[in-house]
Design brief:
single chain; 257 residues; alpha/beta; Undecaprenyl pyrophosphate synthetase; 6-stranded parallel sheet; 8 helices; 6 strands; binds ligand V07
């Protein structure tokens, strides 16, 4: 194709995306979007690369989608970065994964601060390697006053363990008399790690698996679910927008009846 035509086609595609962004903003942006970022290993395998190359590429996509969610006006973005099951992976892979928060924050924290993003985490922080915990604590501390997007990493997270811990905590508080015996959903949800966040309106899973894999089981009781075959390292702004458009259509349909 002639370069002039290439330019015209490219401009057309980008103005189409701009129009879709404008429309999406007018149609109601979900407050809280949660994503299971699956398919990094498969992405690498398809290219005969080591699995860690897929994780690294996936980290770049986290930056891209964080910026995009912030631009769209999403209030909370929860990303499933590491499950309690992931410790079973080869030691070298786990070690690589545990360095990603530092690498991510080392290059991206100034931009997050600039963009008024607040970094949060759910999951068992105390059993993370000290260097990983330190990087996350620092990012949380340096962004705690920010009022824009809440970028919430689920790291060393498992939903059943979260619920069990909440139950134990409830029992303690009942025994010590802090909490009356009557328990409501609203009170119980304050014992979960997501106590300060709204439930996700939209839950996305990439890479073709149609399950929740122990992610936000209580919180996603009423969430819209959207699954795509796209592998996480291939996930682009247009895919996020597609999920939003599907979400908006569904919400409008329910609103009609
Ligand atoms: C991880 C990249 C994304 C695809 C999924 C697996 C690999 C970003 C973080 C991160 C976590 C906490 C934080 C800042 C960044 C991360 C892990 C894996 C363990 F405060 N990406 N990413 N953490 N992957």
């Amino acid at each position: 194709m002639d370069s002039i035509w290439k330019r015209i086609v490219k401009k057309d595609a980008s103005s189409d995306l701009t129009n879709r962004i404008k429309k999406a903003k007018e149609s109601g942006i979900p407050h809280h979007v949660a994503i299971i970022m699956d398919g990094n290993g498969r992405w690498a395998k398809k290219r005969s690369l080591p699995r860690i190359a897929g994780h690294h590429e996936g980290m770049k996509v986290v930056k891209k989608i964080t910026k995009f969610a912030s631009k769209l006006g999403v209030s909370s973005l929860t990303l499933y970065a590491f499950s309690t099951e992931n410790w079973k992976r080869p030691k070298s892979e786990v070690e690589f994964l545990m360095k990603l928060p530092e690498e991510f924050l080392g290059t991206f924290l100034p931009e997050l601060i600039e963009e008024n993003v607040r970094v949060e985490m759910i999951g068992e922080k105390e059993t993370l390697p000290a260097h990983t915990k330190r990087a996350i604590d620092r990012a949380m501390e340096e962004t705690k006053g920010n009022t824009g997007l809440v970028l919430n990493f689920a790291l060393n997270y498992g939903s059943r363990a979260e619920i069990l811990k909440a139950v134990q905590h409830v029992l303690e508080d009942v025994e010590s008399g802090i909490l009356p015996k009557e328990l409501t959903e609203e009170i119980f949800s304050k014992y979960l790690m997501t106590s300060t966040m709204p439930d996700p309106d939209l839950l996305i899973r990439t890479s073709g698996e149609i399950r929740l894999s122990n992610f936000m089981l209580w919180q996603s009781a009423y969430s819209e679910l959207w699954f795509t075959d796209v592998l996480w390292p291939d996930f682009k702004e247009e895919h996020f927008l597609e999920a939003l458009e599907v979400y908006q259509k569904r919400v409008r349909r329910y609103g009609g009846v």
